[in-house]
Request: fold
Amino acid sequence: PFLSLDSDPYLVIDSQGHPFWMLDAYTSSDLHPYAQPLMIGDQEVNYIRNSVKITVDAYNGSVRMYVFDEKDPILAAYRRVFPHLFLPRTDMPRDLLAHIRYPQALFEAQAETYRLYHMQDPQVFYNKEDQWDIARQVVTQEDSQPTKPYYVMLRLPGDTQAEFVLLVPFTSHSRDNLIAWVAARCDPGHYGELIFYRLPKEQLIYGPLQIQSRV
Reply:
């Protein structure tokens, strides 16, 4: 009851062919001082961390909870109350650790916030001179909607090997040309790192709507 559960559990198979459900869990609050509230699912929060990942054995239902954010003060309090409930990340079997992924709901909330808070100059921020939008994509012939973050295999600039990331593109406010994108890394060695790429304003780079129009 003290953790919020992600709405998208997913099934994985370990190296022995044994199936497990994996589920992200959040510590959250709506009482954090001076923090802007956001809707995560049907819950309004202004503090949220994906501090716990849960595995459920698909055969016998046994549950294990692993700590993925040692610095979360809320989880630290829960761990003092329930000292044997939470296991360290290092206890997660390696073949299950290979299947962790950055949660889509959390990343969507972060991207929505970043639309404004990428601006670091106070005057620019106050006037919203460089406001961005989540890039839109076609839903039906008459309608479009903001792009949902999506998982891809991607070789990041400067790297030699593709990795699993969660990505969302941005466009300039009320325009369709691509201005930036943000990716959350999912591979265990870099899990949780957010990478931001800003594209040159003087160069026209097509966004999803423009690409779909050309197609």
